[in-house]
Specification:
Distance between the termini: 46 Å
Radius of gyration: 23 Å
Number of helices: 2
Helix content: over 70%
Number of domains: 1
Length: 91
């Protein structure tokens, strides 16, 4: 009699490379923002605010825009494949 509750070990899902990049850039953005805020409070100098923080948020915006564009293209191609398979089953 076999043990039914014992299952095969699950394989770890690899995180996609693009998701890793987005996570790294977002964490970098948070770290730089917090560090900049702390330094500006400690030094009482706001001159770096416009340059440092805005450049990091600009980089983050570009990465997120490319990631969303990539996801859009993937979803459109998946939808096209699904539509083709539905048409084949109807005929």
């Amino acid at each position: 009699m076999a043990l039914k509750w014992v299952s095969k070990p699950k394989k770890k899902k690899k995180i996609e490379y693009s998701k890793r990049i987005v996570a790294i850039v977002l964490s970098f953005c948070i770290i730089v923002t917090l560090f900049s805020m702390g330094a500006m409070i400690y030094l009482r100098d706001l001159s770096a605010l416009s340059t440092l923080i805005m450049s990091v948020f600009g980089e983050t915006g570009v990465v997120i825009a490319f990631y969303l564009d990539k996801a859009k293209k993937e979803n459109i191609s998946k939808g096209a494949k699904k539509d083709e398979s539905e048409l084949e089953t109807e005929t």
